[in-house]
Amino acid sequence: MEIDLSQFSQVFFEESLEGLDAMESELLNLDVNNPDEEAINTIFRAAHSIKGGSATFGFSQVANYTHLLETLLDEIRDGRRQMTSEHQDMLLLSVDLLRNMFDALMRKIDFDDPLLAQLEKQFTIEIDKGTKGSVSEELDSSSDTLAEQETPGLLRWVIDFQAGIDILRCGNDPYLMFNELRQLGELSVCLAGHSSPEFNDIDPEACYLNWQLELITDQPLERLKEVFEWVEDECTINYSSSPVINDNTEQDDELSNRDPAEAASSQEQQGSEAVQRELESNKVDEAQGPKPKAVSQAKTPETSSIRVSIDKIDLLINMVGELVITQAMLGQIGQQDKIDEESLISLKQGLEQLATHTRDLQESVMQIRMLPISFAFNRFPRLVRDIGQQLGKKVNLVLKGEDTELDKTVMEKIVDPMVHLVRNSLDHGLETPEERLAKGKSEAGTITLNAFHQGGSIIIEIIDDGAGLDTDRILRKAREKGLVGQEEELSTEAIHKLIFKPGFSTADAVSDLSGRGVGMDVVRRNINELNGSIELKSSQDKGSRFTIRLPLTLAILDGQLVRVGKHIYVVPLVSIHESLQVEPSKINRLSDGHELIQLRNEYLPVIKVYQEFCHTSDAKEIKDGLVMVVDSNNEKIGLLVDELLSQQQVVIKSLEDNYNRVPGVSGATILGDGTVALIIDVTGLVSMAGIASMKEDAA
Q1: DSSP string of 446-480?
Q2: Does the annotation count 633 as an active-site position?
Q3: How far is CA 233 from the centre of its chain?
Q4: Catalytic residue among 26, 48, 75, 528
Q5: Catalytic residue among 24, 26, 64, 70
Q6: Catalytic pick from 424, 450, 531, 633?
Q7: What was the pLDDT predicted at 190?
Q8: Pairing relation of β-strands 602-608 and 635-641?
Q9: 420 assigned to active site
Q10: What's the rounded mean pLDDT across residues 499-508?
Q11: Residue, of 130 and 72, whose pLDDT is higher
Q12: Is the pTM of this model over 0.90?
C-alpha cells in the first residue's frame, strides 16, 4: 500500500517557511565574531528539519542542498570551524533561494536557477577546505595516506533493508527513500523476501517486504544513513561496501598531473567569485530583500490555512454549545400549541440569549483570523540590513507592539505599502553617517515600526529620525512638474501632501530604490482600498512619522446607515467626523457649479449622493437635508443625505465576487429585514464626483 503524502505537504511547507523565518532572524542578529551557541543550534535545527522533511516527501533538490547547509553548520556548532561573515551572507542568500524553491514546489513548477549550482559549489569548497585542512594537520608526515584520503574513489554499497511492519502507518514511504538514494549514485533495487501472513490476516496498512539495495557512489556512509534516519528505530538496516575499480585511467592521469594545490585554489577562487557577484547583485529586491537571478522573485502565495491556538478553538466550541442550548429552549417554546404570558417571557429571554451568544460567537470566529503583526514586522530586519549596506548607512531598527493583532487578510495587503514606506525612510529620510555626525546626531539612524489598537482601528507608525521633508525642494520640484502654479503659495501641510501625487519624486536620478515617481500615490491608494488612511508629519532635520489607520478586519464593518430617497446606504464610521444641518448663509456656490459649506474656519465641498447614484431624493438642496462630514485622503468632504438611521455592525459582501466592481461602492451587506444595502467607498465617491481640494479656491 502506498500512502499519499501530498495531504501532509501543506503543513510541511508552512513549517519549513517558519523554519526559514527563524533562520533568517537568528542570522541577522548573529555576531560572527562571537556567535551565540543557541542561535547556531536554532539555525542548524531548522536546516535539519527541512532536509529530513524534504527527503521524506521526495523533494530531493531541497534535501541535497540543505544537506550542505547542515554539514557546514554542524562543523560550526561543534567548534570545528569558525563562523565568518562570508558564511553569514551565504546562509542568508540560501534562505532566499530555499523560499523560491518552496514557492516552485507549491506551484508545481520546475525550479531552475544558476545560483543554486553556484552556491552548492561554494558550500562544497568551504566544507572540503575545512576537511582537507584538518587532515593535512594530522597526516602531514604521510603524503601517501593524505593522497588516499583526498581521492577515496567509488564504493559499491550493499544495503539490506528490512522494513518495519508499521513503517507505512507512520507516513514513511520506502519508494521515496530509494528515490533519494538514486540521487547519490547508481542504484539497483531487488526484493529480498517477504513475511506476509495468510490472505485473510493481511493488514492493508502493514508492510511485509524486505529489499536489498546496491548503490555505487562516492558519498560517505553518514550520507547514506541520513536517508534512513527517520525510520532507523523501526527497521533493520545493514551496510557493507567494496571498492569499485575505475577504468578511466587516462582522465585520472590527466587530473593527477595537475598541481592539486593549483587546482583547488582555482576551483575555490572561481566559486568564491561567482557567489560574491551574486551576493553583490542581489543585495536588494524591489519588495523584501535579495533574490536569485534567472528567477522572478517568488511572491509567496496566500496561504490557504492558518494556525489557531487550542484556546481559541475551545472557546469557539463552548460558544456553539451555548447556542445549541438556546436553540433547544426556543424550539420547545415553538412546539407549544398556545403561547401564554409566561411562555412569551421565556421567548423574549431566549431571544436575548440568542443575540448575546450570536455576538459572542461572531467575536470568537473573528479572533481566529487575528494574527500578531509580528508576522509582518519580521521581514523588515533583513530589508533594513540589506538596503542599509547598499546605501552605506548605519541603521537601528526598533519594533514595538509586535503582539498587536490584526486580521490576516488586512495584514497581507498592508505589507507592500509598509515595505515602500520603510524603503523611502532608508533612501530619502536617513542621512549618511558623515552627514549625521556633522549635524550633531548619532552615527546610526533609527527607524521605528510601532503598532497599537485605537478604538476599532489599528494604528501602524513608521518613524525615522532622519532629515525630514525639505519643503523648499518639494515645492520647487512640484512647480517644475506643473503640479503647483509658479505663483501659488501652499501651507507646510499642503506641501507635504504633494509627495502623494502621482508621478512626483524628488530624486535627481532613477535608482533601484527610487526616482520613478510611482510609489507614494500607490501606497495611499492601496491603503484607501482597505478603508484606511495615511497621515504624515515631518520636521526638517528631526525626522518623519507616517501614521496608517486601518480597520481591524475587512469582514465586518462598523457603519452608519443613511437614507437617500428610497435607498439605504452604509457609511464606514471610521470615515465620519460629524453630521449637521447647514444654514443657507453658510452655503457658497462656485463658478463651476460645485457647492461649498463653511464649517467653522474651513470651506468643505459637498457631494450630493443622489446625483452621483442617479436617485430621486427628498432633499435636492443642501439646506433641505443633512450633511455628513467624512474624511477622504486626510481632507474633509460633505455628503448630502436625506436621513440618518441606526449604527450597526454589518458583514461585508464583495460585489466583485458576486457581480461587478461599482464606482463609489466598496461592497454590500444584508440588513436585518433581508434588504441589500450598498457600502459607500468615500474615496471612490469623491473621485467619481471630480472633486479635488477646494480650500484655496474658497479662500
Answers
A1: EEEEEEEEETTEEEEEEEE-S----HHHHHHHHHH
A2: no
A3: 38
A4: 48
A5: 70
A6: 424
A7: 85
A8: parallel
A9: no
A10: 72
A11: 72
A12: no
